[in-house]
């Protein structure tokens, strides 16, 4: 993911590099006329859609209902569709310029356009984005199992609801146990392909969350326990206008997938399928996001928390309410535990390539591998214990590194146009994306920093 390869690729025959750019599955060699029995012969359309969709859907889904609270249901759903369309356009430009520059990674095309400095900046952004994402995952897991008081009102966790309040089900101890017995063992696997079964289970658990949430809403509608949702934002003064921009980093984070597009493209038997795969994945994920936002906001209204899972600790007014609450929360907490190592893998590789670019591959150096794994997991653990809300992480990581990866870098590559292939439409769209991203995210950072300062005071 961090090293560029400028050798042209045949769409059906590949060489297998022994570095961090290796695909999740083995590639055929140029010397093979026919694939051996059981040998990988290119990823399928369905498998690629599954992988890219898994990259997109993550912790951002838990914060989307809170964006409906800020924007209103009508405007919020419209913004989800708008960001999805903008994401598709940025990925299309990124892939087109990668083809011309014969770059097989995002870092490679950045290096092709802006030299070594461009590649380093990209790697730094990956570190901020993935580290922020992992901290969000751990915060949500802590909220679910041990509860949260980030809004000033305590929402009990699953363990507290089952056993009462004890030292051993406190946030720090629970996250420490999860880190030692779940995150560390899974993150210690050197090949990401070893996680394919846990990733499949993670997707199934995310679907369980959505289906149960939708079922709760439908049941409450039958009993008359759902009020009409607010369709438009509440705008009363200039501060409320600036507050609308705070949702931009959350929406950008929800659709970030650019750093895995090249990996999936490299595995395809027919690389011309990558654009339909991107469109299908974005359509699928947008549908999941819209349904989650709709049902989550419909269920909790203006009481929706930054992490909607924390809302599932009260009587929902339907039969088996508390049982359903626990199933919803545990299923998604387990989902995030299983997705954690997939995001951790590129984080560790990019950090190692940034610090030790001339060293032997990380996979062959057990000492370096162990130290980097322990250091990064420790950093994530500390961040999850000292940052009170996922909204805070989304605001700062989403408004800086994530927006660069998703919009600013692809647009900058098109404007740089080293190979002279950018159209007028590309340049207009690129300027629009950069201006929108910079303006919206500067306001988001300012609004969030001001709110945090006032809270501390």
Automatic annotation (TrEMBL):
Highest rank taxon of the organism: Eukaryota
Coiled coil: none
Molecular function via GO: L-amino acid transmembrane transporter activity
Keywords for the protein's UniProt record, in alphabetical order: Amino-acid transport, Membrane, Transmembrane, Transmembrane helix, Transport
Domain Amino acid transporter transmembrane: start-end pairs: 43-446
Membrane topology per record: Multi-pass membrane protein
Region (Disordered): 1-37
Keyword Membrane: yes
Biased composition (Polar residues): 1-10
UniProt name for this protein: Amino acid transporter transmembrane domain-containing protein
Organism the protein comes from: Malus domestica
